[in-house]
């Protein structure tokens, strides 16, 4: 009697435990600037992640477990990024897509690394992957590659013109500007001016006048849209005709709004436009049907969760060691194309392309 | 040579805006001996009111720029003065008569409150309006550099000069000005002579806020881009201007603003834009070492 009762109890307990496992959601997270002046990029990440998770859950989740999204806001502040990372570790997330600003990703990734949490980032500063963290994978290329493309383009297309290289002193901005300057030097077109500005200020007329009196016609800029928009406005006001070459951050339509509706003189480098990838057509349509333009980082965020889903499916487990092995060895098909990683966790196919703004859309230029 | 004149114009424009905000700091310090750290955020709030106003007017189909500018100025000044009044009423008046540090802490709290209020209600994203006043005059060209004076710069300097004239008249010629100066010299004595001290202090806050509001509108017109955090940077610079000019001295605040604007413009142009804040604050320290009361400040005489 006692024995039978024990057996029944065991079965009952076991089935409860089983169903508990089956219905327990896996926590996955994004982190980035959900507030602050770069909030619109954080917004792109959130939209991409939400759609990806809805799609993954609709097809039955990852290894039978539904995904639940946790959102962390670091406002691109390195201190806050570390706090967010610690919160995420406490919540025992299985996967992190983030952070966005290189200056946030670099300190936060150490925290995730210690806790063995897999992360996929779009940060581009070379220091992100150069430290060889085993948990970190970068899908948007590196600033040295990006700088090379931008620098070579400037050296070739604007030969003989005076080119200034300006940055905002951030990890991303200065890193990119340095690489552009290096690549220009290699292309025999040394920058005529090297300057830094203070991000968050409103008055850049000093810089604009300096460029004007030095006869600068082209400016390469490492930084974020808010400051570039102000420089563009003040250059226009001062009657300085300026062509600008920026980095991947300038793919944000906020640049055009803040510049007063016209940023047609802005070129920037960014990964190949995933919206034109035929394999992504269905997902792009889905975004557009939901009234979301899948620009900038939207599809990157979507791809990050596809990576997690596919890596977990291949590994057959959500354990970090298995996931990591599967990420490093695997070949993945995502909305941003075919992805493989090298030993440092860099995507092997991060070709950068030069774009130009036209109205509120951007398109590739030759 | 030509670019020196261009930087002079840029520096004077920027300095005018610092000066307008600095007056708010110096006036409040003069009358109650306290640094109102929330003043920079009052200016930020006024910029948001101005953007809202411009957007509403554009939606209402008012396309005449001078008319729109006047309406926005009037509305912004009115609303911001009310803000200034309520800040004084809620955060400072209850603490009058307590230690000098209490209202100081209270003003820092007020500053954080205003910033977060705007961030939560208006969103953290950058707000922008299309350029309203475009174009300008090309003054002359030398060595291939044409000196350009934007209409918006002319407006900023002219409005500042006009405002300073009105303000000087208000302080030196009117009965309110006399009461204000009396409160500044000796609050107890002023009270004994039948001056409503609380009312005078409230009015001082309102006038400071109104000047900050004008600066907010001018900044919105000139730069076209604002966010909830602009009050901090501008506040620090304006406060520095007030100290540089001699805190408590009204012409000093304006002078300090202009000096800082010019230092920034010239340093950015001829040395390095990277170190312009370092230069500004180094010069502040140097000035204070040799003139501890600022450029136009008078040494405070302890009354016995």
**Helix count of chain A, per DSSP?**
13
Coarse morphology of chain B: globular
Q: Pairing-aware structural class of the strands and helices of chain B?
A: mainly alpha
CATH homology-level superfamily of the largest domain in chain A: Response regulator
Strand content of chain B: 5-15%
What does this molecule look like?
The complex is a heterodimer of chains A (366) and B (304). With 366 residues, chain A is α/β, with parallel strands linked by helices. Chain A has helices spanning 2-23, 39-58, 78-90, 102-114, 126-130, 143-157, 171-186, 205-213, 225-237, 254-258, 281-289, 298-315, 320-329, and strands spanning 26-32, 67-73, 95-97, 118-121, 136-138, 163-167, 193-196, 218-222, 243-246, 266-270, 332-334, 337-339, 353-358, 361-364. In chain A, the strands form three sheets. Chain A has a seven-stranded mixed beta sheet with strand order 7-6-8-9-10-13-14. Chain A has a five-stranded parallel beta sheet with strand order 2-1-3-4-5, sandwiched between helices. Chain A has a two-stranded antiparallel ribbon with strand order 11-12. In chain A, helix 2 runs parallel beside helix 12 (298-315), helix 3 packs parallel to helix 4 and helix 6 packs across helix 7 (171-186). Chain B has 304 residues and is mainly alpha-helical. Chain B has a two-stranded antiparallel ribbon. In chain B, strand 2 and strand 3 (145-150) form a beta hairpin. The longest helix of chain B has 31 residues, at 2-32. The N and C termini of chain B lie far apart (54 Å). Classes of the chains: A alpha/beta (366), B mainly alpha (304). At the A-B interface, helix 8, helix 9 and helix 10 of A face helix 1, strand 3, strand 4, helix 9 and helix 10 of B.
